[in-house]
Known about the structure:
Layout: H1 2-21, H2 23-47, H3 54-67, H4 74-77, H5 80-99, H6 108-122, H7 124-131, H8 135-160, H9 174-194, H10 200-226, H11 241-259
Helix pairs in contact: 2-3, 2-6, 2-7, 2-11, 3-6, 5-6, 5-10, 7-8, 7-11, 8-9, 8-10, 8-11, 9-10, 10-11
Amino acid sequence: xxxxxxxxxxxxxxxxxxxxxxxxxxxxxxxxxxxxxxxxxxxxxxxxxxxxxxxxxxxxxxxxxxxxxxxxxxxxxxxxxxxxxxxxxxxxxxxxxxxxxxxxxxxxxxxxxxxxxxxxxxxxxxxxxxxxxxxxxxxxxxxxxxxxxxxxxxxxxxxxxxxxxxxxxxxxxxxxxxxxxxxxxxxxxxxxxxxxxxxxxxxxxxxxxxxxxxxxxxxxxxxxxxxxxxxxxxxxxxxxxxxxxxxxxxxxxxxxxxxx
Length: 260
């Protein structure tokens, strides 16, 4: 627990600093998280016996991520076809969660494509949200609700958890999920009052709280499919970078497209 807290405080310090700074510093952090998370997915697939074209996948992801810095490419990232693609990936992921089955191809070409498409539909929008309309407030609003919900769910589940939430993640409980939602909404109220946000942010806060938990559960489904406890051991006490980014992945595209 001590290791988890120390690592968490370290990540929190870096996160707040870079969210406040934005620009190239924040991009480099998101780029690093994206590449390392993609690498973790590749390694999980390989350990389960699925061949992935690693160099090709990471190369395509790196080039796509760098394109968000090139203004003409922003037209593509916010285009209507891109929105359809992103919502398609998100809905498909939630369909997998509802079915409790990860549809992961065993053919190298399609398995590689699955990882690349999932990463490109989610990770770049963390940076794009921060650099978009009122990006600092909207990104901070999103991650603060996710973090507060995670913490509330963790301790609420330990103290009051009695009923399992889903066999996708056996340690999560219904009570922890409800307390996590309540924790997110408390922070939503703080942000709404502090930054004089409109009443629409109550609905957005509730959506962030729910979608964040679904993102966390989907990542648990991925790990269960590949038979691993954590995506990696790069972050002591927290697992891997994919473990930490999971809840933000589905929230960021929604918030970006809603405000931009």
